[in-house]
Write a structure and sequence with these properties.
By secondary structure, the protein is mostly helical. Helix content is 57%, strand content 0%.
Length: 77
Amino acid sequence: MVEEEHRIPVNPRKLARNSDKRNQVYRANLAQGKADFRHREKPKKTHFTSDIKKRVIALLKDDFNREQIIGYCRLKN
């Protein structure tokens, strides 16, 4: 019994986006690196609001250390 080759459709948009811009050659490791970079650089949801920042600055001025600030914020929220 002969195994059938699995055919995966090629998305031309992905090929263009992930190809080398100098010579238009697609390389899997280059494409993965570009995808990883885009994932790292995209905007993330921030939980650190300006109100929290003000509270942390005030606690730092009161000589709280990082662990104390974390404990205080967890207790109050």
